[in-house]
Amino acid sequence: MSDCLFCKIVAKEIPAEVVYESGRTLAFRDLNPQAPTHVLVIPKDHHADAAALADAGDDLAGEVLKSAQEVATIDGVSEDGYRIVFNTGAAAGQTVFHVHAHVLGGRGLTWPPG
Ligand code: AMP
Ligand code: ZN
Prior knowledge:
Elements: H1 5-10, E1 18-21, E2 25-29, E3 37-43, H2 50-55, H3 60-74, E4 82-85, E5 101-105
Antiparallel strand pairs: 1-2, 2-3, 3-5, 4-5
């Protein structure tokens, strides 16, 4: 998708602070972090949201979750705990329609999030 922000990050047309990369995923720090660890994990191929990711097959959704786990280990939050969030649809706060898992950690995270 030529007009997609995150496709442009994959294509290196827009810079990002990459934390981790697997064959089919890329993880980079959120520009507006909400916690000490706030990393976005995306599939390199364009899928609009979590539902489309689930439909993509070939365990692509599993690879995104595996990369989220790697990010948590790299940032040292896997022992204390971290949160993985997929905002799905505008009403849930999704603003970039290239699916991304928010990996949040490094501070106390309340539940429910509000
Ligand atoms: P969402 O609201 O779930 O769609 O999340 C989109 C996230 O992308 C927000 O947390 C933004 O801060 C983040 N974001 C927007 N532009 C960039 C960018 N160029 N690099 C890194 N993160 C970004
Ligand atoms: Zn895209």
